[in-house]
Design goal:
Blueprint: E1 4-7, H1 14-23, E2 31-34, H2 45-58, E3 60-63, H3 67-78, H4 83-97, H5 102-113, E4 118-120, E5 125-128, H6 145-149, H7 152-159, E6 180-183, E7 197-199, E8 202-204, E9 214-219, E10 225-230, H8 231-234
Parallel strand pairs: 1-2, 2-3, 5-6, 6-8
Antiparallel strand pairs: 1-9, 4-5, 7-8, 9-10
Helix pairs in contact: 3-5
The structure holds manganese (II) ion.
């Protein structure tokens, strides 16, 4: 039977991604939705992107755009680096891309340029890397920056009073629009969680793979979770991000 599986932020941890897809027993019938931040962190940053491009030949895949794809694409197109990116995992991508041919890099640039800012499925579930701010939904957003950088959607979902009725005038408009919303971007390990965490209809699947966490996926219909080992254990000779 076909499943819809949502995969959280990978950050160059290809060993964890392979382990995760094996543990989930992913088959070509499954639809895979990747929430972005494929790069910046572990040494397989470019290899993750190559792997995803191959995977899309077998499986139905939706690839969202994370803020780290924006940063790497800017560097690939301009050659310009800057300290804030290098300190937040960019150094690993820089070294990882040094091992690729220009032909391969061109294919990666195409991949980065074709990523979705957001995706809405047939059951009115929204998927995006970070968030949106417009009360009428992401298609009304004034710029595409929130799709990659926003944290207010997640903070609002976390802090919403669960007894507040959807018809109450205080209920936030943007949380009424979709059946469910799936995001990454802000590791749930920051709030003491180890697995994908849902609140107020917003599911956060980023379990901190770039740091001390695992890589996770969740089945949107059953909410069954599958996880890799802690990613830093799969890259014991690397510092990762901190
Ligand atoms: Mn992010």
């Amino acid at each position: 039977m076909s499943r819809t599986l949502v995969i959280g932020d990978i950050h160059g941890g290809l060993r964890a991604l392979i382990q995760l897809l094996e543990r989930a027993e992913v088959s070509p019938e499954d639809r895979l939705i990747f929430l972005g931040d494929y790069v910046d962190g572990w040494s397989d940053s470019a290899n993750v992107v190559s792997y995803l491009m191959e995977l899309a030949r077998e499986n139905s895949c939706i690839f969202l755009r994370g803020n780290h794809e924006e940063l790497v694409l800017r560097w690939l197109k301009t050659g310009k680096t800057y300290d804030q990116w290098l300190e937040h995992g960019g150094q690993a991508s820089l070294e990882s891309y040094a091992r690729l041919s220009q032909h391969e890099i061109d294919k990666h640039i195409d991949f980065f340029e074709q990523l979705y800012n957001f995706y809405i499925d047939q059951d009115n579930r929204l998927y995006l890397h970070a968030g949106f701010t417009h009360a009428r939904g992401p298609e009304h957003e004034y710029t595409d920056v929130p799709f990659r950088w926003d944290r207010t959607l997640w903070e609002q979902a976390l802090s919403l009073d669960p007894t507040l009725d959807k018809d109450h005038p205080h209920f936030p408009s943007r949380l009424k629009l979709f059946e469910e919303i799936y995001i990454g971007h802000t590791p749930v390990t920051r709030i003491g969680e180890d697995k994908p965490y849902g609140k107020s209809g917003v599911w956060n699947v980023d379990t901190g793979a770039a740091f001390k966490g695992k890589l996770s996926l969740i089945d949107v219909d059953t909410k069954k979770v599958v996880q890799s080992d802690p990613v830093y254990e799969l890259y014991p000779d690397e510092p990762g991000r901190n």
